Amino acid sequence: MTHLTLSLVEIATPILDRHHNDPTRLLQILHDIQDELDYISPETMEYLANKLEIPITRVQSVVEFYSFFHAKPNGKFRILFSDNITDRMLGNKDLFDHMLNRLHLEPDTVSEDGLVSVGMTSCTGMCDQGPALLINNMPITHLTPRRIDEICDLVKSGLPVSNWPSHYFKVDNNIRRADELLATAYNMGDAIKAAVAKGAQGMLDEMKRSNLRGRGGAGFTTGVKWELCRNSQSDERFIVCNADEGEPGTFKDRVLLQSFAGHVFEGMTIAGFTTGAKQGFVYLRAEYKYLVKSLQIFLENMRAAGFLGQNILGIDGFDFDIEIHLGAGAYVCGEETALIESLEGKAGRPRIRPPFPVTCGYKNKPTVVNNVETLCKVTEIARRGGAWYEGRGTRQSTGTKLLSVSGDCARPGIYEFPFGVRISDVLEECGAKDVIAVQISGAAGVCLAPHEFHRRIAFEDVPTAGSFMIFGKDRDMFEVALNFAEFFAHESCGFCSPCRIGTSLVKDMMQKIAVGRGTKYEINEIQRLRDQMKNFAHCGLGQTAGNAICDCITKFRPAFDKHLSSRDFLPAFDLELSLARSREVTHRDDADAHLGAK
Amino acid sequence: MDTQVSSQPQKVAKRKIRVATTSLSGCFGCHMSLLDIDERILQLIEVVEFDRSPITDIKHCGPCDIGLIEGSVCNSENVHVLREFRDNCNVLIAFGACAVAGGLPAQRNHLDIGDALREVYCDRTGLGKQIPNDRELPLLLDKVHPINEVVRVDYFIPGCPPSGDTIWKFVTDLIAGHMPRLEHPLLKFD
Amino acid sequence: MSEIANTFTLDGQIVQFTPGQTILEAALDAGLYIPHLCFNPELKPHGSCKLCTVIVNGRSGSACTIKAMPGQEVQSSTPELDGRRRLQLQMIFVEGNHFCPGCEKSGNCKLQAVAYDLEMLNPHFPHFFPERPIDASHPDVMIDFNRCILCEQCVQTSRDVDGKNIFALAGRGMKSHLVINSPSGKLGDTDFALTDKAAHVCPVGAILEKRVGYAKPIGERKYDEQTIREQIAADAEGGL
């Protein structure tokens, strides 16, 4: 025990020093501790609570809230299969079972020798190259049974992941169509210089003229957001880049951060220049932890070149720097106030709005939260002006939009189109044939049937954060809805009762239908619960949680009907199964010891 | 919320309304409370006749207009009786906390049923060392459920037990063809 | 009119408010009842139970968090909203283990009182049957986590009034639960005391004083005498 405690102190002290014993850095501290110790034991929690001078419950609350923190041992190798519907369509369940068999494991159970555990996780943002998994936070894509065998062999060899051949961790960009953002050559500092030349007010005017709207889905006008922040009375302001790209089926931010990080960072710096913020944060989802090193090198280069830090471009008082904060596996943190809570080292529960972050955000100071893609677009406006920018796209949706295309098509990947592109044009360009449905903007979005493929990607028609999942003629749309139902029950933060309980009830009912015990009654109940969440839930997660499922029910009813029993009602639970334990302890198997399937 | 009453009072006025009652896993407290309608039972009997019920000793439920179920679903026999009622009664009513929400019997739901049986039959002196396994005995479900988790239920009268006045109000509303309504002070969960 | 009056309408009735007040606070002051559960007038609004959801100028939101503004049109007592509130209560009932006949809080319980007022006759949905062990480690107070509705009134009160920080919420989604600030996680290992205000704020029967069981018999308790609606009207009358 003494030995254990000693090693905890030895490990934790430099980590705590590095983070200045600052409780707002709790997530970052826990990440670092877990990298060393594999999990956060009660003893560790108590130790950290004492050192950070916060209640143990605060540490416990954070550890239990985030999927990527663990209060129990996980094994030297922690393997998580991405479980988005596109992964399922590519056979991730069979590969998952294959790996469990090869390693003689049960799901989420550590092997007896403490070597390895295997589980499922929400979409990891590799849908264009799935099925995919994360092993100790490193992504491996294009999984095949053979690749699984190789991974199992490497795991059994005990070789640390950092020493595995690097080809395993190759992540492709798959840029299929490039326009203004993806096709323009980057030259460090050009955008910042252009913005500085315009002056803060000038840049703001250009932003407003551009009518740039947020690319995270909600579509708030970015210039107005900046102006509100700039005009808020405060001694401090913050710029936050929302890189918590958790919407199932979207991966454009991953590509931007991997290959266009300069655009993102310059966009943030320009936002700082315009609003008067001096500190920026990139809130990066833990699934993209593998990008941290390259991002930090990029930041270092920017600092060295004088584009970050004190007196940028030699302008007195133009100070701005950027720090990367890791999330820890919680979809709800894509919601800007949940993200801010998380950034402050707490569980990611959305705040009550108003006040909005532009007046009361990080540490209750005015804060701009912008999507990764939005910040990239800022550099275009800085370089080419708002009037030029406004010339692309549609009236209410200016500029271009990145779409993350996955599912049944010949060329999944990133497509940059001007806003206003028709769904059918995207389908043609990516080589999708015999499509029965497209899910736009992820699990929280809308499911469109072929008669709607003439519709356009734009805030005034079909808004999207970028996810574009294609389903071919052999797909079971019930399976799609089931995947979304399971996703939302897993990701509901639990704060408000409509979403916390509603998403679980919907999931249970969908699973009941999946095993053939559902009836029209469940279909009606799911629709009722969707209405309830839409009208009563606290944040966008709950309000949209039933949408795609109910779209599927409305538009693809036969896919549901074929799973339904013809009876008007079946018990909420499996009666036959509920006698199993009694049969076991009484050793009975006579006819009266069964209740049948009825 | 749940289905409308299907019996039509004008037509059935000519014949008596046939009512069946039973207690599944309950304490018969709700039935005792039914008797608390006191002398009003004479009014009731003008328009109602009883099929299967503890007060008739009829063993199986025949076609009925109304079935009143007390108690929760705890074992296989409860399931059979409940199904018989659902098959035979036009309107099925859960009456009392157990039928409505699981009640007292459901307070065992956090226990493993094997552990519970072992503790009762094996771990105590004087009772032998075997969990009874006669096939005459109904097997216990792993969890106790309110009746609406097993069959479709039309109406619910909460209370432990619902008072005689509550039952009277509800049943007379129903017989008169109104949507039954319970409010303060008749609506009680305890 | 030279000045806009500080009034809004609630279901057509004119309600006066003091600037800064929420819709719910103003309504309660006026003796008008909007169903609510997690709200406690002495604490910061929590906004999690969503029972007080109203329609303000056509948009739905929580009356406990939306500030009253001159000229707002607020709808609350509509069949549609009451239906949704009833549904919401049913969801809350099946999530926990709300066995009223066996709970000392029965008759004084706000969850139960709101359910009475909205004429909720059954919990409707399949029960989740949670398995959360009871904490009886403290000499004077017990906690039945199966009854907790996650309103955080005890969390806020212990932190902001008692200055002790005894409680917090942990977990996510349906695994959210109340936790205790001690290395063992037990209430008995904290400096929690019966004299703490947090020992008495629980709107349901999750935090209960020991050894006072049934001092007042069932049938003669707070909400047996009057409905919650009647009490709020009476409280406002008394306050005037």
Shape of chain A: globular
Across the major sheet of chain A, the strand order is 5-11-10-14-12-13
Principal-axis shape of chain C = globular
Which structural class is indicated by helix and strand composition of chain A?
alpha/beta
Examine the secondary-structure arrangement and name the CATH architecture of the largest domain in chain A: 3-Layer(aba) Sandwich
What number of structural domains do the residues of chain A give?
5
Q: Indicate the mean pLDDT of chain A.
A: 96
Helix content of chain A: 40-55%
CATH level-1 class of the largest domain in chain C: Alpha Beta
Number of helices of chain A: 25
Q: What percent of residues of chain C are in strands?
A: 5-15%
CATH fold-level assignment of the largest domain in chain C: Ubiquitin-like (UB roll)
What would you note in describing this structure?
The complex is a heterotrimer of chains A (598), B (190) and C (240). Chain A folds into five domains: 64 residues; 87 residues, Glutaredoxin (3-Layer(aba) Sandwich), CATH 3.40.30; 203 residues, Rossmann fold; 76 residues, Roll (Ubiquitin-like (UB roll)), CATH 3.10.20; 84 residues, Up-down Bundle (de novo design (two linked rop proteins)). In chain A, 44% of the residues lie in helices and 12% in strands. In chain A, helix 6 packs parallel to helix 7 and helix 19 packs antiparallel against helix 20. The model of chain A has no long low-confidence stretch (mean pLDDT 96). Helices cover 31% and strands 19% of the residues of chain B. Chain B starts with 8 loop residues before the first helix and ends in a 15-residue tail after the last helix. The N terminus of chain B is likely disordered. By secondary structure, chain C is an alpha+beta fold. Chain C has two domains: 148 residues, Ubiquitin-like (UB roll) (Roll); 79 residues, Alpha-Beta Plaits. At the A-B interface, helix 25 of A face helix 4, helix 6 and strand 6 of B.
